[in-house]
Write a structure and sequence with these properties.
The protein contains 4 helices and no strands. With about 90 residues, the chain is an all-alpha fold. The longest helix is centred in the C-terminal third of the chain and has 26 residues, at about 65-90. The two termini are about 25 Å apart.
Length: about 90
């Protein structure tokens, strides 16, 4: 993702920092944006390459409404930040 953003002249670190600087998890704790992105990619790979099963015992991974809502919101923040940077770059 860093390479793709770089092609647009956008630094990943800027997007990550701005996206999650005031982003809290369901427990009310401030989150680490890089950790969120890494977890999203990990989960995506589990779904796409392991049929959403645990690597060690092949049990199906659980997914809850709360998990889905939280991650949709995180992705939304991230995408909106990328869009903001892209529009800013196009106006330069």
């Amino acid at each position: 993702m860093k390479d793709q953003l770089s092609l647009l002249g956008i630094e990943f670190e800027n997007v990550e920092t701005l996206s999650f600087k005031k982003y809290y998890n369901n427990d009310g704790n401030l989150v680490d944006g890089k950790k969120i992105i890494k977890e999203l990619f990990t989960r995506r790979n589990e779904i796409a390459h392991q049929s959403d099963r645990n690597h060690f015992n092949a049990t199906k991974n659980d997914i809850t409404k709360e998990y889905v809502r939280y991650n949709i919101n995180a992705i939304k923040h991230f995408v909106e930040t990328i869009h903001h940077y892209a529009v800013s770059k196009s106006n330069e």
